[in-house]
Amino acid sequence: MRVLVIEDERTLAAQLAQALTEASYAVDVAHNGVDALHAGETGEFDAAILDLGLPRLDGITVLKRWRAGGRNMPVLILTARDNWHEKVAGIDAGADDYLTKPFHMEELLARVRALIRRAGGHARAELACGPVVLDTRSGRVTVAGRGIALTSHEYRVLDYLMHHRNEIVSRSALVEHIYAQDFDRDSNTVEVFIARLRKKLPANLIETVRGLGYRLACEE
C-alpha cells in the first residue's frame, strides 16, 4: 500500500514517513501544497495524510481540487488542537477522517489502516483468503494458523492483493502501489515477488490472468 504524506514541518514529515515505512507502506512526501496537488493528481495512492496549514497552497484547496478532479483516495487531515473550523472545513472538502496535533503515532497508523480497509469494503483488521490470514495491525501473515516469513515487498504485494481479493490486479497497478515514486521501479520484480509468494502460500491461490494481471482467488 502506498501513502502520500503532506506536511511542511520537515521533522514531523520524516517521523511520519519512517513510521509508515516501518509499517510496510510505500511512502511519498510533499512539503507544500503545490507539490502535494501534483503528487495526488499524478500518482496512485491508497491514502493521503494532509496537513491543512501548508505553504504555497493550503490543504483545503488541495483537497477540493483533488476531489473535483475525481481523486478519491482516503484522506486523513491533520489539524491544530483548538481549530474546530479546520476540522469542519476539511470534512466538507472531502476528508474522510481527521487527527488533532499533537497525536500518538500508533493512533495515526490505526486510522490509516481503517481508512484503507473501509475503502476496500473491509470491516475487520484481519483479512482472510481461505487459510491465509493477514493481520493489518501487526503485519503478521499466517497459513492455517502457522506464521510465515515475508520480506517487506512480498508483504506489500500480498497486502494489496488481499485488499483487492477476487479482483484482477494489473502488474502496473502493483508497481504503482508497492513502490514510492523515487524508488527504482522495475515491473519484472513484481513477477519475482509473485513467484516467491506462491512458494509460501497454498497452490493456485494467486492466479495469473493472461494479459491482464493477477487475482487472489478466495471463496466468498
Output the structural class.
Answer: alpha/beta
Helix content percent band: 40-55%
CATH class of the largest domain, named: Alpha Beta
Helix and strand run? EHEHEHEHEHEEEEHEHHEE
Furnish the topology, listing elements before pairings.
Blueprint: E1 2-6, H1 10-22, E2 26-30, H2 33-42, E3 47-51, H3 59-68, E4 75-79, H4 84-93, E5 97-100, H5 105-119, E6 126-129, E7 132-135, E8 140-143, E9 146-148, H6 152-163, E10 168-169, H7 171-178, H8 187-200, E11 206-209, E12 213-216
Parallel strand pairs: 1-2, 1-3, 3-4, 4-5
Antiparallel strand pairs: 6-7, 7-8, 8-9, 10-12, 11-12
Would you kindly provide a written description of the structure presented here, covering whatever features stand out?
The chain is an alpha/beta fold. It folds into two domains: 2-119, Response regulator (Rossmann fold); 126-216, Winged helix-like DNA-binding domain superfamily/Winged helix DNA-binding domain (Arc Repressor Mutant, subunit A), CATH 1.10.10. It is 42% helix and 22% strand. The chain has eight helices and twelve strands. A five-stranded parallel beta sheet has the order 2-1-3-4-5, with helices on both faces. Strands 6-7-8-9 form a four-stranded antiparallel beta sheet, with helices on one face. Strands 10-12-11 form a three-stranded antiparallel beta sheet. α2 packs parallel to α3 (59-68) and α6 packs across α8. The longest helix has 15 residues, at 105-119. The chain is globular. The two termini are 23 Å apart. The mean pLDDT is 94.
Give a brief outline of the structure.
The chain has helices spanning 10-22, 33-42, 59-68, 84-93, 105-119, 152-163, 171-178, 187-200, and strands spanning 2-6, 26-30, 47-51, 75-79, 97-100, 126-129, 132-135, 140-143, 146-148, 168-169, 206-209, 213-216.
